[in-house]
Amino acid sequence: MHVQISEHIRLRIASGEWPPHYRLKSEPELAQEFGVSRGTLRRALTTLIEEGLLRQVRGRGTFVTSTTIEPAIAQKLSTLSEDFADQGVVTTTTV
Prior knowledge:
Elements: H1 2-15, H2 27-34, H3 38-50, E1 54-57, E2 61-64, H4 72-76, H5 80-86
C-alpha cells in the first residue's frame, strides 16, 4: 500500500500540483486523506525522502524539494547558502 501512496505523491509532484518548496499536509491529515495508518504513510514518505523528492524539516513539516527524481546522495551535496535558501533564509556576503 505504501508503494501506491508513494506513486500517487510522485504524480502530484510531477504534475506540478505540488511544486518545489510546497509544504505537505501534516502526517495525520495525509494518512486520513489516503485512508491508511500513519505508519504506512511514513513508509511512503521515507521512500520519497530517500529518492530526494521530499525533505523533512523537524518542527516545520515535509516539503517538496524537486520535480525530478534524483539520487539521495545528490540531495546531501549542497552549500550552506543553498541549504539556507531552501529554508527561506536570505544570506549576503560582504568582502
